[in-house]
Design brief:
CATH class: Alpha Beta
Radius of gyration: 18 Å
Number of helices: 8
Number of strands: 8
Strand order of the largest sheet: 2-1-3-4-6-7
Largest sheet: 6 strands, mixed
Structural class: alpha/beta
Strand content: 15-25%
Number of domains: 1
CATH architecture: 3-Layer(aba) Sandwich
Length: 261
C-alpha cells in the first residue's frame, strides 16, 4: 500500500447529522469530539434533529410501549438528570466551537441548498432520524456514510443492538457504511465488535456501541481522506430488515437474561 504524505493532506470537510439523544448518541460525541484529528477532519457543521423525526408525545408513547411503565420511568429519570445537568449533544458541539446547522427536515430544499453551500466532502449520519433522499445524498463530494450498530446486511433497520441481543448473537457488530437510496444497503467501510456478556443490559450495549462507533468513524474518515478506504459491497440476498421492537420483544430479551436498563 502506498504511503500518504500527511503534511500535504488537506483536511476532509465533514457535516454531521444526528438526533437529540442525551442518553446514548451523546456517548458517540463524547469520544468523537475528544479524539478526532482536527488537522485531518474539518467539521463544517452539525445538524441535530428530533428523535424519530416526530413530536415528543409520539416518541414518549413509542418508548413507553417498548419499555413498559417501570423502565420508562427509570429512563425518564435519566433524561431529566441529563437536562438538569445541562448535558446535551448541542452543548457539547458548542463547547467544541463547532457550528450548528438547523433543519426542520434534512430533505427540505432549503436545507439541501445550505448543505451545498458548506461544500462537504462527506456527510456523516449518526442515528439521523430521517432517510436521506437522493438530493441530499448527492451533495457531498465523497458521499454520505452512516454509523449502524449492527452486522450488515443481516441487521438492517431499527434498533440493531437490540435485535442482535435478542437473537442470541455473541457480540454486537458496529458498522460504518456508505449510504444509498435503499436503506442500509451501501458498501461497508469498516466494522468493530463488542461482546455481549451475560447479564449485560441493552442500555450498556447501546452505550458501548456508540463509543466504539466513534473510534471506528474517525478511522474510516481518515481512510477516506487518505484515499485508502476499502469498500465491501453487501450481498443483499443475505439481507433482513428489523422494525422498532414491540413490548413482547422486550420481554423476550429479559427472558434471555438481559435487562433493558
Amino acid at each position: 500500500m502506498a504511503t500518504v504524505d500527511r503534511e500535504h493532506l488537506l483536511a476532509v470537510r465533514v457535516l454531521v447529522i444526528t438526533e437529540d439523544d442525551p442518553l446514548y448518541v451523546i456517548h458517540f460525541f463524547d469520544v468523537f469530539l475528544a479524539e478526532y484529528p482536527a488537522e485531518e477532519i474539518d467539521i463544517v457543521g452539525v445538524t441535530i434533529s428530533r428523535p424519530f423525526h416526530e413530536s415528543q408525545i409520539a416518541t414518549a408513547r413509542r418508548v413507553l410501549r417498548f419499555y413498559g411503565p417501570i423502565d420508562f420511568a427509570r429512563l425518564a429519570q435519566r433524561v431529566v438528570a441529563a437536562k438538569l445537568g445541562r448535558r446535551s449533544i448541542e452543548r457539547s458541539v458548542r463547547a467544541a466551537g463547532l457550528p450548528l446547522v438547523a433543519a426542520d427536515s434534512v430533505n427540505a430544499p432549503a436545507y439541501v441548498a445550505r448543505v451545498r453551500s458548506l461544500q462537504p466532502d462527506i456527510i456523516v449520519s449518526v442515528a439521523a432520524p430521517e432517510i436521506f433522499r437522493a438530493e441530499l445524498l448527492g451533495t457531498a463530494r465523497l458521499g454520505c456514510i452512516n454509523l449502524h450498530s449492527g452486522r450488515l446486511p443481516r441487521y438492517r433497520g431499527m434498533m440493531p443492538t437490540f435485535w442482535q441481543m435478542v437473537n442470541g448473537e455473541p457480540s454486537v457488530t458496529i458498522s460504518v457504511h456508505e449510504m444509498a437510496e435503499e436503506l442500509d444497503a451501501g458498501a461497508v467501510l469498516g466494522t468493530r465488535t463488542a461482546p455481549i456478556e451475560p447479564g449485560t443490559t441493552l442500555a450498556e450495549m447501546m452505550t458501548s456501541g456508540k463509543r466504539e462507533g466513534a473510534t471506528l468513524m474517525i478511522q474510516v474518515l481518515r481512510e477516506l481522506a487518505a484515499g485508502t478506504a476499502e469498500r465491501r459491497p453487501l450481498d443483499m440476498q443475505e439481507a433482513s430488515y428489523f422494525s422498532f421492537p414491540k413490548r413482547g420483544d422486550a420481554l423476550e430479551l429479559r427472558r434471555r437474561g438481559h435487562p433493558l436498563i
